[in-house]
């Protein structure tokens, strides 16, 4: 099982999170359970993050919490990426 971490931040683009997440979810349907993917949502400073479309998403953990080992880290895009403030 591989762990895929997706880093979200305030004002992120929902499609940049949900598209890759669905790709790994569909892949899991065709892979043996021990060869699949486990998804983890990470936020920078809080666990409740609002996307650019206004939908709130609850992250599993923050980057400040003790890290587990991730096989892949995806960083989403969106208007919040260009705000000039830390994520």
From TrEMBL:
Where does this protein come from, organism-wise? Gallaecimonas xiamenensis 3-C-1
- The organism sits in which domain of life? Bacteria
**InterPro entries for this protein:** Class_I_gatase-like (IPR029062), DJ-1/PfpI (IPR002818), INH-QAR (IPR052158)
Please provide the Gene Ontology terms (biological process) for this protein.
Answer: regulation of DNA-templated transcription
* Domain DJ-1/PfpI, residue spans: 2-79
Pfam families in the record: DJ-1_PfpI (PF01965)
What is this protein called in UniProt? Transcriptional regulator
């Amino acid at each position: 099982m591989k762990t895929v971490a997706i880093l979200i931040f305030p004002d992120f683009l929902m499609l940049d999170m949900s598209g890759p997440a669905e790709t790994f979810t569909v892949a899991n349907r065709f892979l043996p359970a021990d060869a699949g993917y486990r998804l983890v949502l990470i936020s920078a400073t809080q666990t409740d993050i609002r996307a650019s479309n206004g939908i709130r998403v609850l992250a599993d953990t923050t980057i400040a919490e003790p890290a587990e080992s991730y096989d892949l880290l995806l960083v989403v895009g969106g208007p919040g990426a260009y705000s000039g403030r830390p994520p």
